[in-house]
Please model this.
Amino acid sequence: PSENDGDTSVITDTKPKTAKPPMYKVLLLNDDYTPMEFVVHVLERFFQIGHAQAVEIMLTVHKKGMAVVGVFSHEIAETKVAQVMDFARRNQHPLQCTMEKED
Ligand code: TYC
Model:
């Protein structure tokens, strides 16, 4: 058309070529038996969290029942959960770690 009046064919919507992959929260759960120092050690060792922040997160879990310790790709989150669960079991502590898809 020589004029563009009323032309509704102009495309303004763009489709992303690559969708961003979903991210997963890794959660640490409270229990009555796992020593506080063990939880702090887990946070330092598997999540590269500094001592002061590790103590803070551990106390949040202790008081509130759970806390998000990090957000990762599905593969990394699965690895973290497996590492924590294996380390807890090997040390005979009931510490539970799980993952949940982010909204
Ligand atoms: N509640 C535990 C205690 O009093 C400490 C604890 C904190 C356990 C965090 C698990 O994810 C946890 N010894």
In short: The pocket of L-tyrosinamide is lined by residues 28-32, 34-36, 39, 58, 61-62, 95 (CB under 6 Å). The CA atoms of residues 25 and 71 lie 4 Å apart. The helical segments are 36-47, 51-64, 74-90.
